[in-house]
Design brief:
single chain, alpha+beta, seven-stranded antiparallel β-sheet, 33% strand, globular
Length: 239
Amino acid sequence: MSPTQSTEARAEAADWSAVSADLDAQGWALSPALLPDADCDALAGLYGAGQGFRGQVIMARHGFGRGEYRYFAYPLPPLVQGLRAALYPHLAPIANRWHERLGLDTRFPADHAAFLDRCHAAGQIRPTPLLLQYGQGDYNCLHQDLYGEHVFPLQIAVLLSRPGEDFEGGEFVLTEQRPRMQSRAQVVPLKKGDAIIFAVNSRPMRGGRGDYRVTLRHGVSTLRAGHRHTLGIIFHDAA
């Protein structure tokens, strides 16, 4: 089975009704065991090889935290390209519904290639899927992955390492800021191969007077030991 066929099958097997409901309720959802161990290991191994990337970021140099990540170059690895193309069509209807609820005019095409055409026409031509690497004492400050005018409102992170064996600590953290309220933090438990789907920037929340906007940020808590790798799948490209 080719990587694209494999990823399409995995995407179809996800419980998208549950994902949609969880995203509406809390701004994030889990897709357990999206990738098998062998694929996780193969992707994590790409980091050390250092080939097929367009750039590297050392977080401490920019005040982003500690650790590092590398953005893939085009053409993306087949597995990454397959995931990006196969998952997007399931998320586009949710993204359109969110924009409608928030009173935003932008709507997203059903096909990811068509959305990338929109990004590239606006000068957002640099691929954004990335591999992140953390060691003991590393962490990722709370942030949002916004790279230009065109932003797809959902993104995905896949844990490629095994908690409790490959690393300790390093939990995925989300914060939610509601109007006139203090921020709420959530720690999301992930197993190797699990994917978390979450809001890039904001999501709608139903209130007594209709929908209002809730802002989210995400990060990673400090690793106490070991090494952690993550695949990030962002659907818009960067300017």
